[in-house]
Amino acid sequence: MHSASELETYLKNNSGKYLEKDSEKSPEKDSEKDSGKSLEKHQEKGNDAHTSLYQESLAVHRRFGGVLEVASKVSLQTIHDLSVAYTPGVAEPCRKIIKDPELVYLYTLKRNTIAVVTDGSAVLGLGNIGPYAALPVMEGKAIIFKEFAGIDAFPICLDTQETEEVIKAVKQLAPVFGGINLEDISAPRCFEIESRLREELDLPVMHDDQHGTAIVVFAGLLNSLKIVNKKLIELHIVISGLGAAGVAIFRFLVRAGADPARILVCDSKGLVYKGRKNGMNSVKEEISRLTNPEKVKGRLENALPGADLFIGVSVGGIVSEEMVRSMAKDAIVMAIANPVPEIMPDAAKRAGARIIATGRSDFPNQLNNCLSFPGVFKGALSTCARKITPEMEMAAAQALAGVVTLSELSEDYIIPDPLDRRVVPAVSKAVAGASLESCVARKRHEDQL
Q: Which of 10, 105, 110, 141 is labelled catalytic?
């Protein structure tokens, strides 16, 4: 296993007290310009294909006034019902909690409730759209929690993008929730926000754009390696995109045993290497000290020759068939940009890629975060965990990969379907076990506080 201790420290050096310029906050923008008219055609095609879904979604959200509601767990049909659920009866659980604050997990919704928190600065493929426009996305995230994991989740859209204010707001809201799911917060601010909250709160915090993505990508990779018969430590890896997802994927791979000297990372300014001046920040500086020892320069096409694995979390249409042809035999292409992948699956297949995954539901091997976060939080909540540890994240990835049996495994089936009901039980059980082994659990499954 390779040490990622250097990566653990960079978060503390990033002040994160200002919003980046658009080109840095959303590094894909420059690449998008570079890709030219061909990318625009891909986007137009993608928009046409999704037009009916957009209109249907708009109608549903308008009809129901959003997709989320709050429901009572008890009946309020009589005065006695009201007296038990509210005053005067409610005073008794309050008194119990005053004597032992940990009993809040026994007597309140806290034990099964997640806050889905955003500042609206990096929403889906929409960018910095702010807290109001981000609310439909957070509602959708909340109903995924409920449908797949039985977890009550509530959207919290903060009307600030100042790092310290976001941290302060989440800490002040924390007493209500059993965990915090950070969502759609721009890089590099998201790294400090998550790091600080993980240090300062006594409950699980996870930025899904980072760790949820990394868990799913690594699960897909574990199964892909079984097919191509390659070892993680021997892989030549290229990562396109150094926002929240790209950085987290890099960190996850290194922790898992990938050789950082065999990893090349590329942002909108080109390949990252030690000594590069343009478009760098503390996160990229740290990565540059671990990767690319030969200081390969240039753009993405200079990184792909001989690569075993391409992971794209950047922008659509930036990888050509010729670039894929330059990769190693039995290449794995994970083109996760949405709605248009870095390269379309049929093109990657023609170019010789052995395994292709995207972020889209209309192609095989969809790498979707909803395969990770419901099970991760369900496992953490089941033990009233104080933290989400790297060991819990690794357990989640291994369990997710294991849902696909050897008899099911194929080039077009390296990861379960997002609607596969085997996923959450498998992931949550593994995460709960890892929380006990990591000594961050307040209780075992069968215990009562």
A: 141
